[in-house]
């Protein structure tokens, strides 16, 4: 990984995965490719299927959204696609994890 942005993103995804495991989730996949979108993390906790989009920046610019509306739509479509393949899931959640330095925040997207 020679691109410093890709390396920064990979570290953010790893940090998010560790946090989700500590919160009792099981990681089903990282960088899961679905027809509508690639999902950074797909997790399971009980009967909940959780799709996680991870965004990492060294410093977040003020007023700039972390995630664009079209990406939210693609994640919603990916959630629908994955839900059809995981019949055990009673609920599907899409969460945005933002990482600035070592500060991690979870937000519900859908």
Explain what this protein looks like in three dimensions.
This protein is an alpha+beta fold. It has one domain: Trna Endonuclease, Chain: A, domain 1, CATH 3.40.1350.10. It is built from two helices and five strands, in the order αβββαββ. It has a five-stranded mixed sheet with strand order 1-2-3-4-5, with helices on both faces. A hairpin with a 2-residue loop joins strand 2 (38-45) and strand 3. It is globular and about 40 Å long. The relative contact order is 0.20. The mean pLDDT is 87.
Summary tags:
single chain, 110 residues, alpha+beta, Trna Endonuclease, Chain: A, domain 1, 2 helices, 33% helix
SSE topology:
Layout lengths: L3 H19 L3 E8 L4 E8 L2 E10 L11 H17 L5 E10 L2 E6 L2
Parallel strand pairs: 3-4
Antiparallel strand pairs: 1-2, 2-3, 4-5
Percentage of residues assigned to helices: 25-40%
The assembly state of the depicted protein chains is: single chain
The global form is globular
**What's the main sheet like?**
5 strands, mixed
Helix segment tally: 2
Number of discrete domains: 1
Mean pLDDT: 87
In short:
This protein is of the alpha+beta class and 110 residues long.
